[in-house]
Amino acid sequence: MEEQPRFKFAVDRGGTFTDIYVEETRDGVTKGEVHKLLSVDPANYKDAPTEGIRRILEEKTGIPHQRGEPVDTSRIDWIRMGTTVATNALLERQGEKFAFVVTKGMRDVLKIGNQSRPDIFDLRVKRADVLYSTAVEFDERVAIIRDGESAKGLRVEVLKEPDLATLEQDLIRIRDELGIRSLAVALLHSYIYREHEEAVEKLARSLGFTHVSLSSRLTPMSKLTPRGYTACVDAYLTPKITDYLTGFSQGFQNNLKDVSVEFMQSDGGLCSIDTFTGYRGLLSGPAGGVIGFSRTAYKESEDGKPPRSVIGFDMGGTSTDVSRYAGHLELVFESETSGVTIQAPQLDINTVAAGGGSRLFFRSGLFVVGPESVGAHPGPACYRKGGELAVTDANLLLGRIVPSMFPKIFGPDANEPLDVEATKVAFDKLTKEVNAFEMLQQETRKGYVARHFTPEQVAIGFVQVANETMCRPIRSLTEAKGFDVRTHVLSCFGGAGGQHACSVARSLGIDTVLVHKYCGVLSAYGIGIADTVVEVQESRLVDYDNTNALQDALGSLERLEQQATKNLESQGVSYVSTRAEKFLNLRYDGTDYGLMVQEPEDGDFKGRFIADYQREHGFTIPNRRVIIDQTRVRLIAVASTGSGSKFKQGGQHKPTGPVSKSQTYFEDVGFTDVDIYNMPLSPGMIISRPSIVIDSTAGVTIVIEPNCTATVTEDLDLEIHVENRTNASPDKESEDFVDPVKLSLLGHRFMGIAEQMGRTLQRTAISTNIKERLDFSCALFDQTGGLVANAPHVPVHLGSMQDAVRYQIRKLKDSWLEGEVIMTNHPIAGGSHLPDVTIITPVYESGKPTFFVASRGHEADIGGLTPGSMPPFSVNLDEEGMAVESFKLVENDLFREKELRSMLEEAGSRQVKDVISDIRAQVAANNKGIALMEDLMSSEGAARVQKYMKQIQNTAAVSVQDMLRRISIDRGLKPKDSLFAEDFMDNGLKIKLKLTIDRDIGTAEFDFAGTSAEVYGNLNAPRSVVTSAVIYTLRSLVDTDIPLNQGCLDPVSILLPKGSMLSPSENAGVVGGNVLVSQRVTDVVLMAFGAAAASQGCMNNFTMGDKNIGYYETIAGGSGAGPDWDGASGVHTHMTNTRITDPEILEQRYPVLLRKFLLRKGSGGVGLHPGGEGVEREIEVTSPLTVSILSERRVHRPWGLNGGGAGACGENYIVRKDGREIFFGGKNTAVLQPGDAIRICTPGGGAFGAPP
Q1: CB of 336 within 8 A of CB of 255?
Q2: What are the φ/ψ torsions at residue 1141 (nearest 5 degrees)?
Q3: Where is the Hydantoinase A/oxoprolinase domain positioned along the sequence (predicted)?
C-alpha cells in the first residue's frame, strides 16, 4: 500500500511575492521544490501563504482542496513562516490605535527622541511620527540610590507612590472617548523596578483593555527612550499580528491545532505561533535569508581548511540587505526601523536603498541610483505601466535579463513580455541629456574634453554606481570592524542579486561567489532549517570585580536557563536536543558601548571582553571598572526534522548544456555572445565563458561575467571564481578627460572613506560627547587642503575644518614631515571653539603631500572657567581652556602624550585621561582613512584620484551655481541684484548681510559689512564658523543630494569686516560664537534667500559638574517653517545635530533627577505653516553641582516670514528646593544645592505665511 505523502512548508511572505519551500516525503523519498505567488491578489485569494499551501496540496495529492474552505492538515507535519505583516503595518502606519503611559514629566520623550534630525541638510526636518494616538502621564517616580549598588545590581527608592486613582480616570477617558483598547507602558527605571508598570497593567486589564505592552517585560534594559519605542511598537503591531494569525489559522482545519506552526523572529530563531509578537518579527523574512546562507555557505573547503567568513548579499526590488557570518550569528540589541528605535535582539542586517527598482538620475554631472524606488507599481519603464528608468531597465538594455525567458505578466491583460522598446526610448532620452551636459562642459570649462556616450555606456555606468552603493555597507560590516573583506565568500541570493554578484565581488576584491540552488527563495529555505529559540534576560548593572555580584550574575544565568526551558516547553514544539548560549553584556564604566560576551570555555568573561574590545576598538581602558549590564540566555532547540538537516533534491540530473544564446554588454568589452542555461545544472559542470543562468521558477537570473568561472557543486549550487585585477596598473587617461561614471564611483568611495573614519572614531572614543552624542566630524581633503568629502556629522564643522587644514599647510610648509600628525583648536587656525580639537594627518608620495585626512571632536573638558569648558562669561581664550595653534602630536613616530598632558593640566582640564584617549581615537580614525585611501590609490593611481577629487568639487560648484540662478529667477531679481537681511543677538549685537547674486555667471557675494564690532565677551565667531554657516546653507538650498565639499564655496565670496564679531582678534572669546552666533548667521542667510523662517537660533548649551565630573549637552528647540512645510518640534536645527543623553543614562551617571522633558505647547510661531515647538527640560541635582547655561533667543523672538508669526523666546530658571523660581537669564552660572533644579525652556521656530 502506498504511503501517504507528508509535507513540510517553509514560507516567506514578502511585500511582492510569497516564496514557499515545500519538502515532500513519499515512500521514503524526500524531494524539495519551490513555489512563488503574489503576496496580494484579492481578486483570487484572501491570504497568499494559505493559498500557496492549498495549491501545493491539491497538485501533489490530486485531491481537490476547494478555495475558501479550511485546508486539510492531515498530511502536514509543520508550517514555518516569515512574514512582512508587522513590517508593512509599521511602514504604512496601519497598526492598532493605542495610548502611551509614561512617568509624569516625560510625556513627549518619544516625540523628541534623541533630538537629532535624520538628514542634516533637509530644512523640512522629516521625522517619523510617533505611533501612539495619545500619551498619558502617570504620577509616580522612582530614583536610583547613589552608591546603592548591591550584588543584584542598582537599587532604587520610590520617591512618589503611584497615583492609580488619577490614572484610572485617564484610562476610562481614553477608553470611552477615543475607543482605545491597547496600551504601551514605559516608566523611568522600570528595567530595575517593575512594580509600577505591573500595577498599570493590572488596572488596565480590570478596565477592559485587551492588550498591554510593558517595557520592563519586553526588554528589561536601560534607556527609557528605546525601551519606550519598543513597547509602543509591540502595542501597535501585536494586536494586528494576532488578528492576522487568527485569520491564518482559520484557513485550516481545526485552526491548525494539530500542526506545529512556528514563525521566524528577527533574531534568526523560530517561535510558536502563540508567542509571536510584532516587535520581534520586523526582520522576519531577512532573518530567514541569514539563516539560509549561514547554514549553506559557511563550510569547510575540500582540502580541510577552516570555513571562510561569508557576506550575505540579498538584493531585491527596492533594497539590498547585507550581513556577515563567521561561525556565529551577529546580533544587535538596538536598531532603527522606519524611524523607530527598537530595543530587541535582531540579526545585524544592513539595508541600503539600492535594488532592481531603484530609480536612475543624472544630476549635475553625476550618475545617481536611488534612494527613490519605482516600486511594484508602476515599476520600471519596461513593466508597461509608464514607470521611470530603474536598475532593472539598465540590466534589460544590457542583455542581463533575457525577455523571452522572463514571465509574461505585463500589460493590461497581464500576458505580455517586458517592454524592451520602452526601456530603449527612455535610455535614448537620458543619453541625450548626458551628452548635452558633456558638450556644455566642453564649451564652458577650459580644457574639458567631452565624452560621447551610447545608451549602453550610460546603462553600464548606472549598474556600476548601483554596485558601489551596495559595496559601501559591505565595507562597513567588514573593514570598519577590522575584518579584511577580501577573505570572505559572497553568498548571493534574492531576485536581483545574481545580476550583480560578480561585479560586486570584483569591486570588493572577493574571489568566490556562492549562489545556492534555492537562491531565489533562500529566505524561505532558511526558515525551514532554522532552530526554535527562546531568549530571556535580566538587568544587573553591577561591578564585574565585585565577587558577590559576579557570583550572583553567574547564578542568574542558571536561573535564566531554567526559565527559558520552561518557556520552550510551554510552546509545545518538538525538538531532539537543546543548547544554551549564555551571555554577559559588559561595558567599561562611564561608557555606553557594551559588548555581548558569550561564555568562553575558560569562564573568563572579562578576559574575553577585553580581547574583543581590543579587536573592535583598537585599545582597552586600563584601570577602568567593567560593568555587567545584563545577563542573557539564548536557548536553542534543535528540531527532530528539518532543523540542521540537508534537504534532498529529488530526481536524477542529466548533463545539461546551454538552451540558447544571446548577447550581453560587459564593461570594457561591449556586447559579447553568451550562453544561456536553465537551472538545475549537472553536478561537476564547469562554465568558463560569459553566460547567463536562469531559474524561471524562482525568478532568478545569474550573470557569469568575463574572467569568471562557475562550477556546479554536488549540492547543485553555483560556485563562481572571480578573477580580480588587483595587479593591473591603473588605466591611463588624459588630464582633461573626465568620465562621469568614474566620477560618480569615486564620489561614493570618497564619502565611504569619510564615513568609515567616523565609525572608527565613534568606536574608539570613550567620552559621551563623541561616542554617544556624536559631536564629531571626519573629512578627506585634497593636496591643497580643499574639502573633498565630509561625512554628514556636525554642520558647524563642515567648512571650518578646511580652514584648519589650509592654515597648517601655510604655516608649516616644508617643515611638516611625513608621518607627523598635527593637533590644533585655535580660532585663528581654522578652529571653531576650543573644545573642538582637530587632528590632521597628511599622506606623502614622492616627498609631497598627496592628500590630508582630519577629524574634529568635541573634547569633554579642555580647561577654562567652568566644567565642560563652555563658560558663559569668558572674555578671552585664556578663560576658555587650552588653545593650540599648531602642535606636532605625533613626531618621529612617537605620540607626545607627556607634552599633551602638560598642556591640558596647565589649562585646568578636569578630565585629562579621557581627553587624551579621545585624541588617540582621532589619530586612529585618521589612520583608517589613510589606509583606505592608499588602497584606493593603489587601484586607481594617485594622479587619477587627485584629478577626480578636483572634479567632484567642480560638480558641487555647478550644483550651487544652478541653485543661485534658480533663486535669482524665483525672487524676480535683476541679472545682478542684491538681497538684504539683518538680525540681532540678545545683547543688541547686529549681524547684517548684503547678498549679491550674479545670475549670468552663477556667483554670490556674502558681504557682512555693518555687522557689530568684536564684543567684550564670547559672542565672537571666527571666520571658519561663518564659512561653515554659509556652506551649510548653500548645501541645504540645493534640492538634490550632492557631495558637500569645497566646490560648494567656489562660486561664492565671503566679505567680513576686520575687527567685527565675525572677524575678531586673535585672543577674543569665541565659545558662544561657535554655538550661538553660528545659528544666527544661518538664520540671517536663510532670511536673505527667503527660504525659511527663523529656527530656535540657539544650541542651549548646558554644562554641570564639580571637581570630579563634567557633563555637557545641547538641547533641542523648534525649527522654522518654510513655503511648503511646518516647522518640526523638539529637534536640533541647522549648525548642530548632536544627540541628547537618555534620561535613565543621565540619572545613572550623574547625581541628578530629570524632572521634565516636554514640548513647550504654543511656543511655535502661528501661521499658514506654523513653527516648531521648543522643549522644557528641568534637571534637579542631588548633590552640589555647578551649572551653567549659554543660550540665545531669550530676548529677540525667532522671526516668521511672509506674514508668519514669531516663535516664543526661550527662558531659563533656577527652581529652589522650597519651590521659589528665580529667573536665570540667557547666560549664567550658579552652584546648586541638593533639591535645587534648573529649568531650560528652549525657543520655538518662526512660522511661514500669514494665518489662514
Answers
A1: no
A2: -70, 135
A3: 227-534
